[in-house]
Structure formats: C-alpha cells, structure tokens
Design a protein that fits this description.
Its main location: membrane. By secondary structure, the chain is α+β, with helices and mostly antiparallel strands. It is built from five helices and five strands; from the N terminus they run ααααβββββα. The longest helix has 25 residues.
Length: about 150
C-alpha cells in the first residue's frame, strides 16, 4: 500500500489534526469537522477510485450532517454551567442598585451603571436617586425607586 498517495489516509490524518486542534482551542465545532473527515477517509479507503471532487462533496455533506446533529444534541442536552448568565450582561445587571443621572421624567431617563450610562424606564425620579434594576425592555433598564421595593 502506497500510503503517501492514499487519499483515505490523508483524510484520517486531517481528522486527527482537527480533533487535536479542537482539544487545544475548544470551541465545540472542529470536532464535527473531524468526524466528517474521518467518515470521508473511511469511505475513500473503501472506494479508492473516488475523485477529489467526490471526496470534497462528501466531506461537505458529512460536515453539514455532523454539525446539524451536534446542534440538535446541544439544544436537547445543554451544557450546565455554574454561571448561567455569564454572557448575558443585561441579565447580570438585574438586582443592582444604580444612580439616576438624568432625571426620570415621563417614565424615561438615564442611570449610571459602573462607568457607563444606560437609558432607564420607570417611575419619575430626580437625579441622584438610587434605584434598583428590576428588568429590561427594548434595550432600556426597568428601574424602581428603592422605597417602592420595600412597600410591596
């Protein structure tokens, strides 16, 4: 067997290289391409007369299939995390106490969050009032004055 000219072995080497790269740079995507390359390599070993065009089409098709299976798997079995709001900056703001910087009048104003300002929706409040973030709507923070929170 002339392994240098055997496309099936090159596909299997590519599969291993993709899998190792996935381990070094985790992104949960290259593994699906590694599986597609391994399938393409196995098929090419059994059908050595398969043209390079056929191999590439097969790789593209198997890539689509494995990515679709992976997408469904992660939708049905989501990865648990100790911080479910890790990448949801707005959700992480809920519950924080912030300061009104532009008076909330007619239900709209601005609040200081950290070193930035956000538009805010809520009961009228003068500048300097401390309010609590209770939610979001259309890119604005929903706030309530601190006094209202204890009276309910």
């Amino acid at each position: 067997m002339d392994w240098i000219n055997d496309a099936g072995l090159w596909w299997l080497i590519a599969a291993v290289a993709l899998a190792v790269t996935e381990l070094m740079v985790p992104g949960v995507f290259l593994i699906f391409l590694a599986v597609a390359a391994a399938i393409t390599g196995a098929i090419t070993l059994f059908f050595p007369e398969l043209s390079i065009g056929g191999q590439l089409i097969g790789f593209a098709a198997w890539s689509a299939v494995t990515v679709a299976i992976g997408k469904r798997w992660y939708r049905d079995y989501p990865v648990e995390t100790s911080d479910p709001m890790l990448n949801d900056r707005v959700a992480r703001l809920i519950g924080q106490t912030v300061t009104v910087v532009t008076p909330i009048e007619g239900g709209q104003g601005r609040v200081r969050v950290g070193d930035g300002e956000w538009s805010a929706l809520g009961a009228d409040a003068p500048a300097g009032t401390h309010v609590k973030i209770v939610g979001t709507r259309d890119g604005s923070l929903l706030v309530e004055p601190m006094e209202m929170l204890g009276s309910e």
